[in-house]
Amino acid sequence: MTTKLMGQKVQRVEDQRFLRGQGRYVDDIAVGRDVLHAAVLRSPHAHARILDIDVSDVLDVDGVHAVYTYDDLAAFSTAMAEPLPLLIPHPALTHGRTQYTLAKDEVNYVGEAIAFVVAEDRYLAEDAVGRIRVEYELLPAVVGVDAARAAEHLVHDDVPGNVGARMEQNIGDAPTAIATAPHRLELDLTIERSACMPLEGRGTVARWEPDLNRLQMWTSTQTSTGVRAAVALKLGLDLGQVDVITPDVGGGFGVKINHPWPEELLVPFAARALGRPVKFTEDRREHFISSAHERGQVQHIEVGFDDDGRLLGLNVEFWHDHGAYTPYGLIVPIITSTQLLGPYKPQNYRVVFESLYTNTVIVTPYRGAGRPQGCYAMERTMDAIAKYLGKDRTEVRAANFIQPDEFPYDHGLIFQDGRALEYDSGDYPALLEKLKKLIGWEQFPAFQKEMAAQGRRVGLGLACYVEGTGVGPYEGAHVHIETTGKVKVATGLTTQGQGHATVFAQLVADELGVKFDDVEVVTGDTRRMPYAVGTYASRAAVMSGSAIHLAAKRAKEKALRIAAEALEVDVRDLEIVDGVVSVKGSPGSSIDLATVSVLSNPLRYAFDEASKAATQFSVGDARKPPVAEDEEPGLEGKDFYSPPHATFAAGMHAAIVETDPDTAEITIVKYAVVHDCGHMINPMIVEGQIHGGVAQGIGGALYERMAYDESGQLLNASFMDFLMPYVTEIPDDIDIDHLETPSPLNPLGIKGAGEAGVIPAAAVFAAAIEDAEGFPITAMPLSPSDLFALRETRGATP
Prior knowledge:
Layout: H1 15-19, E1 36-42, E2 48-54, H2 56-59, E3 64-68, H3 70-76, H4 78-81, E4 106-107, E5 113-119, H5 122-129, E6 133-138, H6 145-150, E7 163-171, H7 174-179, E8 183-191, E9 203-209, E10 214-219, H8 224-235, E11 242-245, H9 262-274, E12 278-281, H10 284-290, E13 297-305, E14 311-321, H11 331-339, E15 349-356, H12 371-389, H13 393-400, E16 409-414, E17 420-423, H14 428-439, H15 444-453, E18 457-469, E19 475-481, E20 487-491, H16 500-512, E21 519-523, H17 540-567, E22 574-577, E23 580-583, E24 586-592, H18 593-599, H19 609-612, E25 636-641, E26 647-659, E27 666-676, H20 683-702, E28 734-738, H21 761-773, E29 779-780, H22 784-794
Parallel strand pairs: 1-12, 8-29, 10-11, 14-15, 20-21, 27-28
Antiparallel strand pairs: 1-5, 2-4, 2-6, 3-5, 7-15, 8-13, 9-10, 9-12, 13-14, 16-17, 18-26, 19-20, 19-25, 22-23, 23-24, 26-27
Protein name: Xanthine dehydrogenase family protein
Keywords: Molybdenum, Oxidoreductase
Domain Aldehyde oxidase/xanthine dehydrogenase a/b hammerhead: 20-140
């Protein structure tokens, strides 16, 4: 028997291609020498009425092929005249608003698309954009949660109070429980806006093939099938007329799950109208001002607890800044409101949020998607309780844990997928014990005292979280065993660097009994797998992994049936090892999968020895049909996986930091992670996901923020001003340990891992800095200058 690959640290098959510069991204797509290039005129104002757009200076410029405004799109079709889709409606989203492909009458954030220019090259397109004259009537800008709540001005005239949605969920009677509790606390916490910064920005290429009456499109997206559906609808095409291919993607992190972006409609629209391929690649400033942000929330917490720190009542109110439009609905604040509970079980819980319009860039999920804000609120509350009671912070957390024998645990809330917030499995006490050992929790007080004697300030923080992963509704897979014996695997979700080609091949090799090197995986190509949902919410391994496993199982069952007939043995006596089907204990009686594949599609003609054996005159008993009545020709399997609800991974992080007494510089001394994502397909890739997430978490906690002025101008829309951590700011070693509590909800017992590293970072660093400095940390991110100002304000010394 071959060694099982599930759980093995198999080297990524993608790496050699990427490391040798052979990656193929949207901007690398070659669609002929006649490709045209596009540029977008974007609003310089956060809020203004459009009085006139004058494109006359552009129309006669040599090399400019087209200029489009809203009126041109509206003249094409009613569908193009309508706003972009509200992708995830929700009953609580009473005032959902989405932008137009090109602005109609009004702009609501700096960077909103107004006109689209297509020219011979990008330089000419950019110059032509500069020739367009727009007359504006400036309107007051609403920037930030406080201004939105004050509602002295409105982002949209028909949205009272700037409130897009208000949602409340309750377990028990939290206000009464808090009022009657032995102890009570209140906290006010804020997290500022940040954003993901993928190496590759948004990009789209399209080509119209008039002879085939067909559109072919390449786009850097997290949902090729979603883009396909939107393009077909807006351009008035049948779904079968549109192919969307996602090539290599240089990072997604959530920003590319929104669809369609205006350019994903404008590029194919122009390609079809002009009869030539069209390409758009955004520049870095465009990504800052016209893609998507996240994180910005203001939170108020009231908590009642007993002498052991056990939660008796928890009341949370928060205000979410969703920007100028709501294309992705309420996913982010709903996740905050439910995932805030983490591994704990408050006896009474009330949460209410308002999702508010501001004249800033839209919000869509960014790695963690509302969970960092929720974890920050809950873990800061736990720290405050421990400090109030004079107890160890781990002791208070342990007193509130859901216990291993309480799974499945139903919180009585509705999660982001519209289903019950029911945790499927876990062991939180075991996670905590592992973390304490990994970070040296018991030894830290002595270390802190020793450092203090040297005039050095160090602090220790921890945070616990639970992450809903693998949300539905479904994913599918197709597994085809070729007549060469090679195995082709297709799944519809896309890949942005997660190592899908490796982990999915591991699953197929294990199930089919073929060599790992003989498996090829394709993702994000609607020609190969037209039905899919997308890559987000740590769902790829759970959803597509399960579907691929089931599809491979079907292909294997068919292969064994055909081989059993060919070998004239019982199917139960067969096994597949390294691509050869043989009788158990009798390897001499065998047939390779390549020949089985030929036998699965009996031919009239013979091209080689294998097909000669499979012609209709050589299939054996002439009275039997060459293919079973209930089977299609070909050696393949196709299946879909749909979960009953999300599966819940969990983890705990801890960090030791040092804060410089003079400069307030924050240095990470040690960082530790304990994580439970059920059975791991490839532990090395899981650890890579954690490392990357921790790096993003550090950035969000200590460096990155979107700095708007009161007029809605983004002041740091470049890498000269927007700070990201370099490798010098990330710990050389991140200590990682694992716990595997398998999920009962899918055939592989797995849970997602993609966002594990980033979720608790803000809470961890707030706690560690507070421990080092001796005063409360209630706002994140926290830069050295912020910390220095806090010291000045408080006049505090540890």
